Structure formats: C-alpha cells, structure tokens
C-alpha cells in the first residue's frame, strides 16, 4: 500500500520536469524562429552587457573620485544600451519572451529536483512545558519590537519570570541568566538581537537548560534559520505551552559562542569605524577601495582542519555555524540545517575586474572559496584583526581559532511555526530529462502491473 500511495504522488515532479524541458526548448525555438542567425548576436550582446556591468560595479567599489563616477555610469549604461540595441533591431520582444521561458524552465527544473529529493527530516522531540522559565527582554532591540508586540505581558501570563533590560544602563545578560539558573530556572530565553541571543545561549548550553529564541531583533537571522515567525515575536512564546525541542550546534571563536557567524576582512573592518553607525553606505564607500585593493587592512590566511585547502589573501571571510546556502540566490543568507556538525567557510578574493566578472558564475567562480570543517584557523600578518561576531564588532589576537560543538544547545520552539524553506538543488538538465522519462516509465510499469 505504501508503494502504491507513493507512486500516486509522483506525477507532480514528473510533469514539472516535463514542463521544464518544454519551456527550455521553447526558449531556444523562439530565438531561432524569430531572430534566426541574429539570435547568436542577441545572446552575445546580452552577455557582453552583463560582463561590462559587473566590471563597472567592481570599479565603482574599488576606485574613488572621477574613476568611481565613470564606473557607476558604465554599470548603469551597459544594460540600458543592451535594451536599446534590442529595441532598434526589433528583437526586444523576442529577447523578453525567450528569457521568460528560460526562467520558467530553470524554476520548474529545480522544483522537480527538489520534490524528488524530499524535505529534510525535522529532528525534534516532544517535551513537557517548563515550570520556571526565565526570559530577558531588550526594549530597544529591533526598533522597539518588545513594546510594539507586548511579549512581556504574554510571557508573564504564561508563568514566566521576565527581566526587562534598562536601556540607559549596561547590564550583563550572561550574569542575569546564570543567576536565574542558580535560582532554579528550567528554561532561559531572550527577546533581543543575535549577539544577546548568543550570550544567553552560551549559559543555557553550559547549564544544560533549554533555550527560547524570541524574534525581537532587527534581522533575526538565528530565528529565521530556526523557522520561527519573525513578524510577530510574541508567537515564539507558544513554545512555553506547546513546544518541541531541537538539538543544534554552537560555533566558538576562541571561548566566545556565536549562533550565526564570524566575519573577517573588509566587512569586519568597515563596521569597526566610528562613523559606520551614522552613515553605513558612506563609510563603506570610503573604506572599501583600500580594503579591496589590499592597500589597507590585514592580509588573511584561512586553514580548515581535515583539508589541505588554504584560502590566501581573501578580502572577506565568513565562518558560520553550519554552512549557508550557495546553490539558491533566493536562499542566500539562510542555513538549511543547524545540526550538521560542521562550520561553513566562505572566502571571497577579487583582485580585478576580470575576477569580478567571474563572480557571475556563482558557486563555480574561482573568486569564491567554499569549505566545511569542524575547526578553522584564521591568521593574519598583524597581531590583531577586526572580527564581526553575530553583529558585534570585536578585535581579536591572531591566530583566531574557530570550532563547532555539535548538538550543544537545546532549543525550544513552537510546535506550529513557519519552518525553514527547503533549498532547491542546482539545475541539472540531465537529471531533469532522466526524471521526466524514468518516472513516466515507472508510472507505466505500476499501471500495467
């Protein structure tokens, strides 16, 4: 019965794969039928415009003054020129229709491959409600989400003890959490940014207590990857009455915990600037030219345990608690899992416009180095390096050692939550074609049997 039911559910990816093949073929047919040999010129002009625009963006970031202004003009003018040339030749509609069909083909193909792969199994277990939960809330976090959504009142109504931080005085949130644990708290939680989440998560892991994330920060990257509701932080409190428990990994940079990532290089240097808080874009544009051309900032070297690969002199390095997605532009900045037991390492090295153009190849670009390891060492030709750890700007002595502690943290989440969208595999035309044919034969075999 299980096999028959499974077979009845398979036509959806089969037909999606077939639609991908039809749309891809139609995209080529439209070009050849309505543009003829000009279709080759059409593709070449479009590709050239993309390359010129990418080079212009690089020059705009790496140059100053008049050179930067010219680069901005170039980056904007290139795609406009391509559209004008298509229109003059009377082929603009052909290009747009063909492009739309190609996008449809790629989207359907990846959807079919994802459907066959199936959703990742959720590793969660049912647990009893906590008896003495203790929650810390930062009223300034996320532009005042604690005041806007009133999680304090809801938490108290559910029996939690709540400590609201004083915005005018610094308070040691880790010390508050330890004190609560000493007095019998059986769950620790935070409504605040990811940096504050990491500090209290460290105490929860140290004491073996479950940890509750309340998505009241600005970006809530940790909450996003836990599949929590980021629009209404008060919904996270449903975990106090109808929750399940996940076991996730924690990253360590030296003795400090990070729940998301540690960044080195250009970004970490920019956020150290006193002017960054008041003028983020202006400060970045002022500092990036020297950082990207290696005229300023430390020269980094990254080594990962268990591999001979070395990332030499990257402009930026991101070490993350579990790898970020690299195969789906829509999923960039997300981690599909938080329990894989490995750090993700992403290094970017772009020294000229040609390498900047190569970034268009995505994860296949030689300018991007992607590794996974349980331990990573970031060294430099300086005694200290700026580091951004879960959004907090730090300066650490070199070499900097990062490691992962698998399944170190118990996280309590609501049973019913948005969840983490599944990443789609990269497009593979051979697999899509095989999927369309093989599943057709399989379905036919079941029908005749």
Overall pLDDT score: 85
Number of helices: 14
Oligomer: single chain
According to DSSP, the number of beta strands is 17
Shape descriptor reads globular
- Rg, rounded, reads 26 Å
Portion of residues in helices? 40-55%
Report, as a whole number of angstroms, the end-to-end distance. Answer: 14 Å
The main sheet comes to:
11 strands, mixed
Question: Can you lay out the helices and strands and say which pair or pack?
Answer:
Elements: H1 2-8, H2 11-35, H3 38-62, H4 65-88, H5 92-117, E1 124-126, E2 133-137, H6 145-149, H7 151-157, E3 161-164, H8 173-182, E4 187-191, H9 194-207, E5 210-214, H10 221-225, E6 243-253, E7 256-258, E8 261-265, H11 266-272, H12 280-292, E9 300-304, E10 310-312, E11 316-321, E12 343-348, H13 353-358, E13 368-373, E14 375-380, E15 384-389, E16 392-397, E17 400-414, H14 429-448
Parallel strand pairs: 2-3, 2-4, 4-5, 5-17
Antiparallel strand pairs: 1-6, 6-7, 6-17, 8-11, 8-15, 9-10, 9-14, 11-12, 12-13, 14-17, 15-16
């Amino acid at each position: 019965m299980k096999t028959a039911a499974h077979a009845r559910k398979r036509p959806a990816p089969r037909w999606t794969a077939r639609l991908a093949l039809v749309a891809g073929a139609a995209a080529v047919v439209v070009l050849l039928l309505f543009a003829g040999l000009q279709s080759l010129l059409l593709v070449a002009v479009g590709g050239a415009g993309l390359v010129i625009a990418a080079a212009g963006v690089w020059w705009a970031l790496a140059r100053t003054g008049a050179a930067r202004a010219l680069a901005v003009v170039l980056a904007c003018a290139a795609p406009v020129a391509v559209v004008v040339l298509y229109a003059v030749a009377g082929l603009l509609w052909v290009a747009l229709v063909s492009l739309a069909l190609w996008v449809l083909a790629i989207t359907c193909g990846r959807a079919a491959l994802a459907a066959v792969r199936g959703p990742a199994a959720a590793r969660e277990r049912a647990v009893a409600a906590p008896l003495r939960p203790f929650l810390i809330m930062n009223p300034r976090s996320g532009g005042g989400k604690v005041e806007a959504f009133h999680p304090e009142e809801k938490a108290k109504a559910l029996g939690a003890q709540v400590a609201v931080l004083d915005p005018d005085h610094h308070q040691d949130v880790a010390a508050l959490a330890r004190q609560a644990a000493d007095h019998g708290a059986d769950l620790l939680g935070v409504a605040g940014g990811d940096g504050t989440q990491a500090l209290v998560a460290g105490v929860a892991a140290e004491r073996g207590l479950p940890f509750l994330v309340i998505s009241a920060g600005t970006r809530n990257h940790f909450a996003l990857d836990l599949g929590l509701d980021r629009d209404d932080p008060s919904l996270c409190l449903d975990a106090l009455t109808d929750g399940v428990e996940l076991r996730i990994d924690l990253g360590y940079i030296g003795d400090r915990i990070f729940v998301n990532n540690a960044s080195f290089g250009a970004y970490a240097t920019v956020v150290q600037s006193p002017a960054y808080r008041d003028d983020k874009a202006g400060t970045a544009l002022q500092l990036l030219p020297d950082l990207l051309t290696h005229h300023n900032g430390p020269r980094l070297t990254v080594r990962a345990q268990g591999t001979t690969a070395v990332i030499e002199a990257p402009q930026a390095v991101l070490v993350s608690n579990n790898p970020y997605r690299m195969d789906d532009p829509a999923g960039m900045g997300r981690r599909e899992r938080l329990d894989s037991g490995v750090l993700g390492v992403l290094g970017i090295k772009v020294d000229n416009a040609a390498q900047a153009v190569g970034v268009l190849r995505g994860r296949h670009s030689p300018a991007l180095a992607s590794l996974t390891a349980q331990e990573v060492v970031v060294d430099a030709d300086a005694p200290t390096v700026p580091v951004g750890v879960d959004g907090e700007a730090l300066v650490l002595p070199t070499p900097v050692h990062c490691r992962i502690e698998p399944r170190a943290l118990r996280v309590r989440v609501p049973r019913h939550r948005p969840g983490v969208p599944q990443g789609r595999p990269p497009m593979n035309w051979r697999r899509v074609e095989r999927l369309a044919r093989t599943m057709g034969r399989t379905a036919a075999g079941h029908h005749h049997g």
